[in-house]
Amino acid sequence: MQAHYFIGVKIPEPVAKEMDKARRSWNLKSHKRYTHWSDMHITLLFIGNDPHNEIQAAAQELANISHPPFELTTGSVKTFGNPAKPRIIYASVGDSSELADLQRNVKEALLRFNLSPDTKAFVPHITLAGKWAGGPPLEIEMEIEPMTFQVTEFSLFRIEPGSVPKYIPEFTYQLRKGV
């Protein structure tokens, strides 16, 4: 099986552990997958596989992105799909022009490659649970306290299904002040 990749912002450990603690307090049994705190992230761009062996060149191109560090705040708990039987439960992220700019820069940096990045609209989020398992509709109140954190880097991750963590940073890029 070919490796799959994505570019994302890793959630700092204290924030990720607090989100994990809140999610565990809900006693969810509704989903097949629950994101381990060490894998919590915001996907900037899902790439998928690397059919033309370009990931190393793409990684070098990502190193040319200049962007200052910025702050993000988590928002409320939301869902993708039918709210009673959601595909995904996630923590939203407050509006951030800096995050949108970083995502746009990442996407533009990879345009010249034959990779097949996801073309869906960018909806910044932190996945907490995925893959509806069936059963009665979800009727519990899910809340997470807003948390603010600094974004100082982003990474090119390789996906290792079945491992913990399963998102392995292949390359990490520091955001720099004064850019």
TrEMBL record:
Motif HXTX 1 per UniProt: ranges: 41-44
EC top class, as a word: hydrolase
UniProt key word Magnesium: no
Documented EC number(s): 3.1.4.58
Keywords per UniProt: Hydrolase
Catalytic activity: a 3'-end 2',3'-cyclophospho-ribonucleotide-RNA + H2O = a 3'-end 2'-phospho-ribonucleotide-RNA + H(+)
Keyword Hydrolase: yes
Catalytic residues, chain numbering: 41, 125
Motif HXTX 2 per record, residues: 125-128
InterPro entries xref list: Cyclic_Pdiesterase, RNA_CPDase
Function of the protein: Hydrolyzes RNA 2',3'-cyclic phosphodiester to an RNA 2'-phosphomonoester.
Record-stated family: Belongs to the 2H phosphoesterase superfamily. ThpR family.
NCBIfam families in the cross-refs: 2_5_ligase (TIGR02258)
Record protein name field: RNA 2',3'-cyclic phosphodiesterase
Gene responsible for this protein: thpR
